[in-house]
Amino acid sequence: MSWLGAVAEAGASESSFGSLQRVTRLRPGLDDLLQPFLAEAWVGSDPVVLELCRLRIAALHGDRGDAARRTPAAVAAGLTEEMVEALPRYPSADCFTDHQRRCIAYAEQYVIDVHGITDAQADRVREGMSDAEFVAFTVALGQFDGFGRLRLALAVDDAEHDIA
After folding, report:
1. Cα separation, 22 vs 61, whole angstroms
2. Can you give the pTM of this predicted structure?
3. Are 50 and 81 in contact (CB under 8 A)?
4. From 60's CA, which of 72, 107, 149, 153 has a CA 20 to 30 Å away?
5. What is the pLDDT of residues 139-155, one digit of tens each?
6. CB of 53 closer than 8 Å to CB of 104
């Protein structure tokens, strides 16, 4: 969709959400609604857990641009490049807590087959968070999955930008 970049770039100034914002600007008013919604995913949740899940989802999608970005809040909260490099081995890597492993596994299942998430799997994730945090976490996974697929479908690469 090579036309998309040229149309979306006209007069664009980048936000913290990178080139996804260039796409949302194609529909007037959408960006004003979407940016607070995207930012809300990071409120009241563990930013390291969210970032690990976001990065795992990007890897499952084969989205190298999204996988290259780091969320500043997650880095500030303790995300390390050692953790990022260990993500493919998360079930056995020593740098992850049991809760982080359960959340990453849940995120994988969400992307691969959301209907395959079992009550037991959800309960294990909920052990480390409140009901409100669990809902926010699951909504965040939907954002990461959905907007990742949107970027890939529209061939939007925003590897050079940070998020939230």
Report:
1. 21
2. 0.81
3. no
4. 72
5. 999 999 998 888 888 87
6. yes
